[in-house]
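Practice problem: predict the structure.
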Amino acid sequence: MSPNPFDGKAEWFDRHYEDVRGRVRFRVLREQLKEALPPPPAAILDAGGGPGRFSAALSTDGYAVTLLDPSEEMLARAERALSGHRDARVVKGKAKEAPSIFGPEAFDAVLLHAVVCYAEDLDAVLGGVAQALKRGGVLSLVFKNRHALPFRHVIRGSLAEAARSLEDPREAGNLGIANRARTREELEPALSRAGFEVRGVRGVRLFAEFLAAEPEEEEEVERLVDLELRAGAIEPYRSVARLCHLVCERDRKIV
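Answer:
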């Protein structure tokens, strides 16, 4: 069995949530999730939940949370993050395996954050989480936005990479793991095949990408979060944010 590419990366994930870009990402998504998710104590699956930052926050809010991840190292960190949380558990597995692990229609909502960019088979992943969701359940899908790639490379000083990314959405990223950015339009056919309808679109992390220096005062971070929340809800800003957040509903019809 080949090693999991995310083993050895858990510390980076945790550190990422400490810098301003990571904090903005977390705070903006937390606010967007408050609007998207059903109220506690709904059952939430955090598929590919990594070290457990979102699972811990949602458990604190009163949700029944299950974190699913294939990496032993990520699971160990998640277990520490969820230690003391009564209605939270950690399970080893991949998103596409959710229905075979938990059974059909086991959850009221699924978080699928930064998973599809690494997926080779979109239909398997989206179909798997769809089967694990109850009819009418919510999917929170966060992915790398293809429209943002050229901006990212220009900020980093590589015009050659910016030009390449106009045609090729693949890159190694900060983790050195091959991944692919997508557009909403590219994902919608796969979502439809899995039985999802898109109910909301938000951008995540736009202006934080352009900061010359990280804000030193917490008050400035709060202003940045507020700016990101407002811009992420309107065009043209949400379409060029680093991440795209789709809120989807599983079809209620029995097929």
